[in-house]
Design goal:
InterPro entries: Osmoadaptation_assoc. By secondary structure, the chain is α+β, with helices and mostly antiparallel strands. The chain is built from 16 helices and seven strands.
């Protein structure tokens, strides 16, 4: 009887491939343990240096207190400090954080996440290493998807406030304002449930990126803990009506909604979390939007909620004048961003969709009144598009060869992500508006033949903007991986797909080319880890 290790099943080539894979896994495990050990040693060393800095830095803080910088915010914790600087550029913000240069965004993501936010600075590396990336091991496979809590670019630069010979570096993170706000809000005392919600989202992303079930399990456990704390927080809020907890609860619910989408691939669960956020914001009222945190949550909620108001044909409190014409509106530059000025118009449409569905007796005069209302909204949308192109000195987009063949030969390449999100949302809003125009015109035709002209025009507009919405998709999916951008463009894609189905089934048009392309695109989107809103049609 032969002794020793039994032979693996399969051919010799398969056994060799299995051995190579095992060696690679062993090497990765060794590197991971080494990085974790180095990180723990660095944390122990930095703890001693931070204690010395805290004791010696009190006099320096006193001497500098006479000339404070209004755009610099310092968050202090016992034994640790982080310096955060925000620079306003047009309507966006650029945040600068004093972080350690050598941050390993590898498998030990939790430790790196904590270190990045809790440690103020670290000595600069020897000459020749300063230009290296944030992953010194050279084996860093982190992507923009893995750092999507910041959803932006990361750059390393010399801090101008430090002399050239200084030993400090600065890391700048250009990111989404709401994500930035909740990340900083999580550093406040008593924000443990928000920390857990953000950590669960981060672990979910890393688990998806690396296909690591251990991280997915850790994310699930952390998510359950955050949800339990969120339920307890809601109970306390209902009992005490403490408005100060409103921003924290709504930020946590928004963070949990992202994990719900990533883990369970459930738009229904995602929408339920958004309903909780909306209930909190509506309950507190417009007067509660006094702090930056509360306003960041409001802008984040308004952006993510509007697609579901369209899909469910349900009006929202956001369409009321008191939720649009704020006293502080003129002083907040975020209301001048293209997407937010578009949302001021778009929130009117779900109200009209709900009214159409719930009106039992649609007389010809009622249909005419509704068409006149929609015509005013169309005028506002046309004006928004004209102003958008006038504000931009250059064209907001160009075209390039389409990577997803089968429908169009060219796809749209936007100048930047903000314009991409705004224009793609505009396409979806316009598609849904003309869906309602077609229904009203079709109802009116038996009593007014002139409504057939309105119907034909609405069909042309719906088809035109559905094709444009499809051309916009490639920008989000065939370039860098942008999770937030992908979520934003799924609503216009669903609107376009629904319009193609309607034109084929109700209007007699041949949409086989468009429907086949939409089906293939839905499979591509689901292959990227995100579910589509619904599968409209299968060929």
């Amino acid at each position: 009887m032969p002794q020793g290790r039994p032979r693996l099943p399969g051919t010799e080539a398969q056994r060799a491939a299995a051995r190579r894979q095992q060696i690679r896994e062993n090497v990765r495990a060794f590197r991971r343990r080494r990085r974790e050990r180095e990180l723990s040693e660095n944390q122990a060393e930095n703890t001693d240096s931070v204690k010395e800095e805290t004791s010696s830095g009190s006099s320096t803080d006193k001497s500098q207190s006479g000339s404070p910088t209004p755009q610099t915010i310092s968050y202090e914790r016992p034994g640790r400090q982080i310096s955060i600087t925000r620079e306003r550029r047009d309507s966006d913000s650029r945040w600068a954080l004093a972080l350690p240069l050598r941050i390993d965004l590898g498998p030990a993501y939790t430790g790196a996440f904590i270190a990045a936010f809790h440690y103020r600075s670290s000595p600069s590396p020897p000459p020749g290493i300063a230009s290296t990336s944030l992953c010194p091991s050279g084996n860093c496979s982190i992507s923009s998807r893995a750092v999507s809590p910041f959803s932006g670019s990361i750059t390393v630069s010399r801090d101008p406030s430090v002399p050239p010979g200084g030993d400090y570096m600065r890391v700048e993170i250009c990111c989404c304002e709401w994500i930035t706000a909740v990340s900083f809000q999580a550093m406040y005392p008593g924000a443990e449930m928000l920390k857990d919600a953000l950590l669960a989202s981060s672990l979910n992303l890393i688990g998806m990126e690396r296909d690591d079930p251990r991280l997915s399990i850790a994310a699930m456990q952390t998510q359950n803990k955050a949800l339990r704390q969120l339920r307890e927080g809601f109970d306390d809020y209902v009992a005490s009506r403490d408005v100060t907890q409103n921003a924290l609860l709504s930020a946590t619910a928004l963070a949990c909604s992202m994990s719900e989408l990533l883990v369970n691939k459930s738009w229904a669960g995602y929408a339920l979390h958004l309903k909780g956020v909306g209930a909190l914001i509506e309950d507190a009222g417009p007067a509660a939007l006094t702090s930056r945190d509360s306003r960041d949550n409001f802008f984040g909620y308004r952006t993510t909620q509007i697609p579901f108001n369209f899909l469910e044909h349900r009006g929202t409190f956001l369409s009321r004048p008191e939720w649009i014409n704020f006293p502080w509106r003129a002083s907040d530059p975020r209301f001048n961003r293209p997407r937010d000025t578009l949302l001021d118009i778009a929130v009117q449409i779900p109200v009209q969709l709900e009214l159409y569905d719930k009106s039992p007796n649609k007389t010809p005069n009622w249909n005419r009144r509704q068409l006149r209302k929609l015509n005013r909204i169309v005028t506002q949308l046309n004006q928004w598009r004209t102003e958008l192109f006038e504000k931009c000195s250059d064209s907001i987009y160009t075209t390039e060869a389409a990577a997803w063949e089968g429908l169009h030969s060219e796809s749209i390449k936007f100048r930047d992500d903000n314009l991409a999100a705004a224009f793609t949302l505009y396409a979806g809003v316009r598609i849904e508006l003309f869906v309602l125009v077609r229904r009203l015109a079709a109802d009116l035709i038996p009593n007014d033949e002139s409504a057939s002209l309105i119907l034909r025009g609405a069909i042309r507009e719906g088809f035109k903007w559905s094709r444009i919405a499809c051309q916009c998709l490639e920008y989000f999916f065939t370039r860098e991986r942008r999770v937030m951008g992908k979520v934003a463009c799924l609503f216009p894609f669903d609107c376009a797909w629904g319009t193609f189905v309607e034109l084929q089934e109700e209007r007699g048009a041949n949409m086989s080319l468009e429907l086949r392309w939409c089906q293939n695109t839905a499979e591509r989107i689901e292959g990227s880890g995100l579910p589509v809103f619904r599968v409209r049609y299968r060929i």
